[in-house]
Specification:
Shape: elongated
Mean pLDDT: 90
Number of strands: 4
Low-confidence stretches: none
Strand order of the largest sheet: 1-2-3-4
Strand content: over 45%
Length: about 80
């Protein structure tokens, strides 16, 4: 299996501390490479994990959607 981690970054999402990393992995059964973006968001009481995945060839079509979802995070505590 091929996996390439594209980095871990500390970010802020709506005044919450968050960490984000991306990776590309190859799925032999599907025969394609996949892009995966994982975001951990820490609030005062919880940790939320967002996981976005798409066929790597299509990342340009979905990256803005992933960013819009990530940046619209709202803590409902």
């Amino acid at each position: 299996m091929f996996v390439m981690i594209l980095g871990i970054n500390e970010i802020s999402i709506n005044n919450n501390k968050a960490y984000e990393y991306s990776l590309v992995y190859s799925d032999k059964s599907y025969g394609k490479d996949f892009y995966c973006n994982v975001v951990w968001i820490e609030t005062s009481n919880n940790i939320y994990i967002l996981n976005f995945e798409v066929v790597n060839d299509n990342i340009d079509k979905y990256k803005d959607i992933f960013n819009n979802i990530k940046n619209s995070f709202s803590n409902l505590e």
